[in-house]
Structure formats: C-alpha cells, structure tokens
Design brief:
Order of helices and strands: EEHEEHEHEHHEH
Number of strands: 7
Shape: globular
CATH class: Alpha Beta
Oligomer: single chain
Distance between the termini: 24 Å
Bound molecules: guanosine-5'-diphosphate
Strand order of the largest sheet: 1-3-4-2-5-6-7
CATH superfamily: P-loop containing nucleotide triphosphate hydrolases
Structural class: alpha/beta
Length: about 200
C-alpha cells in the first residue's frame, strides 16, 4: 500500500467521541517509549503526525488519523509508565477495555514490543487479555536497529517460547526500525490484506 494522504482527525477521551465507525480501523498500542509515535510517523511517511511521547499524567486519549481517505489509524495511549497513580492505571484500563470491546470497526490491534527486551509480564498479560476477548492482534518488535539482528532474533525466540507455554499458536509478527524504515511495506501490505475483515454493515 502506498500512503497518499494522512491527516489527524480527532482526539477522544471516550469511545463514544470517536469518529463514526464507518471505515476499517487499525490501532497501535504498547508501553510508553516503545517507539509507537516513531512507528506511526514512519508508516505514514509524515514526520510530525504522531507526537513524540506524551508525558505521564496527561489526559489519555485515542487519536484518530485518516489514511488515504479510506481507513483509520489509531494511536492508543501507552501503558507501563513507572510513576503513574493507581487511578491513572484504572482509567487506562477502562478506556482500552471499552475501546477494544466496543469499537466495532476495529480490524486489528498492533501490539508494540521493544526488540531489546525479553518478555515483560504486562505485555504478555495484555495480549492474553485481548486474545480472550477475541480481538485480532499482531506483534511488532520495534527499534530492531538498536537491538541488532542477533539480539532481536534471540529476544523474539524467547518471546515465542514464553507465549507457546500458554498459547497454541503465535500471532502475526513484524520486525521494525523507524529509523531505517524496516517493516514498513510488510505492515502496510498486511493492513491491505486484512481490510476484507472489516464488516460493511457497521
Ligand atoms: P512512544 O512513547 O512509544 O511514542 O515512543 P517514541 O516514538 O516517542 O520513541 C521513544 C524514543 O525511542 C525516541 O527517542 C525515539 O527517537 C526512539 N526510537 C523510536 N523508534 C526507534 C527506532 O526504530 N530506532 C531507534 N534507533 N530509535 C527509535
């Protein structure tokens, strides 16, 4: 897929404030600092589209971008800030749970994981939670240029092994580098291929 246009539509603090669910939607989520904004900017080829990480304590919003006038890319608030209050964590949980269960045009969620890290409980718990709700998702290992080929492969194989202790199969997996543009075509092609799962009757 070639990105011809990408524009910011709206920030929503509640799911009911999101744009009408009339187009296929793909959302991106991950721990803070995982490289989510950089990945969104790399995929869309628009440097300043997603802002580089918001500070903890800020209002948590769902940010919609319209791509090629035909689908939505959504930047979801990150998780795993070390210093946020219990209240903020609960708010995040409520918002994300509502978003993934209620947003009927959501085709797929990309769960971002730093390629330099071995599995972290919060990532595994999050994937398990969305899988149990029947939400299709894919893993995206970010910052692979920083990790290097060997470390990326080693970490992914540990991730796979850990997941397969509890899962029957592995989700689709992408390796990216925002600085090198790695994984861009693969992710955009995957988005094109999965758009058929968008239900027109929404
Ligand atoms: P977010 O909080 O998940 O949106 O993360 P950001 O996109 O703001 O990235 C966090 C930091 O990691 C920034 O300093 C980025 O420049 C850096 N970063 C993000 N992606 C990559 C990548 O693929 N390669 C390298 N080398 N640095 C990256």
């Amino acid at each position: 897929m070639i990105i011809k246009s990408a524009s910011f539509i709206t920030s929503s603090a509640l799911v009911k404030q999101c744009p009408p669910p009339d187009k296929p939607e793909y959302a991106f989520i991950g721990r803070s600092n995982v490289g989510k904004s950089s990945l969104i900017n790399m995929l869309t080829g628009r440097k300043g589209l997603a802002k580089i990480s918001g500070t903890p304590g800020k209002t948590q919003t769902l940010n919609h971008f319209l791509i090629n006038e035909s689908w939505y890319l959504v930047d979801l608030p990150g998780y795993g800030y070390a210093r946020v209050s219990q209240k903020m964590r609960e708010q995040w949980n409520r918002l994300i749970t509502e978003y993934v269960t209620r947003r009927e045009n959501l085709v797929l969620l990309f769960v971002l994981i730093d390629a330099r890290h071995e599995p972290i409980a919060s990532d595994l718990d999050f994937m398990e939670k969305i899988a149990l709700k029947g939400i299709p998702f894919a893993r995206v290992f970010t910052k692979s240029d920083k990790a290097g080929k060997k470390e990326t492969e080693k970490n992914i194989s540990i991730h796979n092994k850990t997941m397969l202790e509890r899962w029957e199969s592995l989700p689709p997996t992408f390796i990216t580098s925002a600085t090198k543009g790695l994984g861009k075509d693969e992710i955009l092609d995957y988005i094109s291929e999965t758009m058929i799962f968008f239900k027109r009757d929404n």
